[in-house]
Task: inverse folding
């Protein structure tokens, strides 16, 4: 099953009929409808969730990431998400990207300032994993099979959207620099660093999101004076870049571990550790236990 999952198979797909019992048990709650939409690929479940739970932040985020809407409808959904989760910087970042893409740079910068002032950034990924696991259990999967199907293959389009936002920030930073406005260029660079570090610290349970966050932060730092001091950590820009490079090399080593070589118990333990401590720590646990070869003795 794991080999099929890792190779893009449909082992983690369920038909609407097989997920019907899970939906009944959970009274077609917002969370269960979102899980059903992702697992079956049937967007009718997402539409039902949006109709029944129009102010639920998780529903609004999935509508933004997976739904189809006109520009006006998308803007309305973004505004609703920011209102439903006012302390979540995710809404402001996605709103900023939407403004950039529509050509309204001033509105994009205002949204970025809103995000910059918030300490929390949430994409509800762990909740999604847990709901998926429960759906697979209800469909008759074993505990480990349900955990694996729930954890692996989760779609994370939010990472690519935030990467697109970082490219807009770099373009704006370059624009200010060429105009001789060093102060504004510095501010935009700091916004990019903030976006990247928030992804690593608050969305980094999955290595893909951590790597994207690192790339975003690195892209902004590389345009700054390497001897400049970062207020958040007291490091120089050069020291932070070196730290990011070391972390990337460690992740590359951990990424060489072949999870398909482990038995069910180890896979189950890995997933539980990944949910609690993040994928990086879970892979370190496997490495410390078996090395990087990936084969259980």
Result:
């Amino acid at each position: 099953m794991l080999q099929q999952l890792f190779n893009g198979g449909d082992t983690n797909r369920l038909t609407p009929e097989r997920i019907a019992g899970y939906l009944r048990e959970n009274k077609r709650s917002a969370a269960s409808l979102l899980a059903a939409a992702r697992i079956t690929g049937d967007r009718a479940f997402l539409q039902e969730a949006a109709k029944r739970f129009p102010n639920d932040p998780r529903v609004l985020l999935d509508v933004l990431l997976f739904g189809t809407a006109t520009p006006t409808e998308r803007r309305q959904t973004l505004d609703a998400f920011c209102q439903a989760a006012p302390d979540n910087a995710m809404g402001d970042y996605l709103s900023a990207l939407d403004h950039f893409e529509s050509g309204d740079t001033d509105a994009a910068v205002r949204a970025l300032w809103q995000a910059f002032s918030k300490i929390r950034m949430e994409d509800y990924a762990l909740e999604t994993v847990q709901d998926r696991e429960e759906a697979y259990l209800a469909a008759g999967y074993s505990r480990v099979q349900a955990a694996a199907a729930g954890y692996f293959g989760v779609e994370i389009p939010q990472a690519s959207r935030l990467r697109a936002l970082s490219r807009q920030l770099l373009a704006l930073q370059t624009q200010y620099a060429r105009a001789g406005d060093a102060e504004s260029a510095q501010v935009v660079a700091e916004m990019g660093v903030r976006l990247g570090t928030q992804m690593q610290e608050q969305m980094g349970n999955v290595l893909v999101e951590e790597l994207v966050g690192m790339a975003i932060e690195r892209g902004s730092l590389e345009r700054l004076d390497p001897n400049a001091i970062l207020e958040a950590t007291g490091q120089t820009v050069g020291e932070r870049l070196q730290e990011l490079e070391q972390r990337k090399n460690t992740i590359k080593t951990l990424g060489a571990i072949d999870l398909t070589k482990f038995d069910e118990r180890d896979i189950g333990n890995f997933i539980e550790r990944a949910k609690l401590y993040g994928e990086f720590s879970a892979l370190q646990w496997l490495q410390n236990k078996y090395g990087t070869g990936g084969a259980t003795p």
